[in-house]
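In the laboratory, one determines a bound structure by crystallizing the protein with its ligand and collecting diffraction data. In a computational setting the workflow is compressed into a single prediction: the sequence and the ligand go in, and a structural description comes out. We illustrate the idea with magnesium ion.
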Amino acid sequence: MVSSVVRFENVGLRYGTGAEVLRDLSFALDRGSFHVLLGSSGAGKTSLLKLIYLAQRPTRGFISAFGEEVTGLPRDALPALRRRIGVVFQDFRLVPHLSAFDNVALPLRIAGRPEDEVRAHVEEMLEWVGLTDRMAARPAVLSGGEQQRVAVARAVIGRPDLLVADEPTGNIDAEMADRVLHLFQELNKLGTTIVIATHDVHLVSRLPGAQMLRLVAGSLSDPTGAVRHPPKPFRPLKMRP
Amino acid sequence: MRLSFIRAGQRNDFLPTGQGAGGGLVPWVIAIMTFLTALALAGGIALASAAGGVATDLGRTATVQILQANPERAAPQLRAVVEALRHEPGVAAVRQLSPAEMRRLLEPWLGAGNVTADLPIPAVVDVRLRPGADAVAIDRRLHSVAADARLDEHGRWLSPLLGLVQLLQWVAAAVVLLVTGAMVAVVALGVRSALVVYQPTIELLHLMGTEDAAIARVFQHRYLGYGLAGGLAGVACAFGVLIGIGLLVGRMGGGAIGTLGLPWHGWAALAVLPLAVALLAMVAARVSVGRALRAQL
Ligand SMILES: Nc1ncnc2c1ncn2[C@@H]1O[C@H](COP(=O)(O)OP(=O)(O)O)[C@@H](O)[C@H]1O
Ligand SMILES: [Mg+2]
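The predicted complex, in structure-token form:
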């Protein structure tokens, strides 16, 4: 049995008839690992994350999640897998007519948790991201940073098996960014596999113990490259014979 | 614009209430269409029952008159006619109207007291025909025994009227069908515009692992509510109009128009209509949402 939570084999992706945005991606994310996906803007980070959180099918290659080959699964098998994944979207994707509280509560309510449990969890989470006094506010009246924190709170509240965060610290100050990263690390200690995409090289230095994936123009660059940090090497997937 | 949010007891109802995505208009359109459907339905059923009633009352009855003013020449013809009718296989019953009965029938037309003994009263025989009896053949045979006898089949007077009633019934049925079709289209359009407006929310819930059925259920419930509200309002208005018509007809007094009332199964059909409309709206919503969701991964 594989211990990898996500596994890519020769994955390629193109949108429509355009050029390949992602090329020949082969890697595995081990259970409980913490990865930083580093790449400049337009390198394909968001596209790669979309494949991971099952929002997109690859144009070629194979992807498995939680040991299941998802490229061949029927679509009605996907929701159960998606519920095990928390996502911080680059554009937040908060529901505009729901309050911060109700946005954060969504994953718990989708999972059908009892309402008193929902209330306690959501209040605790909003306190942790410093939004206790903004609980009833709708996204439109929240600042970019506040929206991002709501998005982070919503992604982690269900204690997902896999957390995918697309530039989760792009809109918040350094202190709050540290807080959010600390939250991710705490979640990671509880066993959640984490992937954070960022174009910010300095973020890596704030995450000791994180493994790095470096995306250059749609390809994973040599994992032994200069930016590698920490020393723990990225282990490229061996091709099947 | 007032919005309600996901709360306890409304879990997974992620749609805002209020004027969301044409939803505010949908119940009104449904109400108007239900109103039209209800009137067409009631009209069709009332016509059917009135036509059916008149046809069974009059359709198989006939009258034989002896068109002879001289009572001495009329009397033997009358006897011959009654005798002949008794032996006709197509005749179920024969009843000769007495002069007293005839006077009573004539009085409302001529005025009380004007029907004097010297007034020449035609001899009349009431005949009830069996189904399938050939009235023309009977009339011909009566002629051979009584030269002045004439058989009038009441149904013959009625047949053009019945044809008209039948045509009106078809028109009513067509109206019901067309309005129902338009209602389905309106609901489908409403759902589609709601889907466009809520596309980002729906996609998000989808990516968070909400099952298609749960998303469809939200729209289904919403449109079941719209259908019930619109359906009840439409049928309530139709009830008002029908009761008003009933009162006016009642005030005009009995006679033929008095039979134009709505039979009980007509009222029952109207009472069931809002439920049917609500179910229709619900199914239309479910189909539209299901189709839109299946287009996503
Ligand atoms: N939905 C899409 N349709 C077409 N092209 C896209 C789409 N999303 C991204 N791209 C293209 O794919 C490339 C990688 O984009 P993206 O994955 O967003 O990169 P990053 O997140 O690293 O900035 C870009 O050239 C972008 O224009
Ligand atoms: Mg991006």
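The CA atoms of residues 50 and 121 of chain A lie 27 Å apart. Keep in mind that any predicted model is a hypothesis to be tested, not a measurement.
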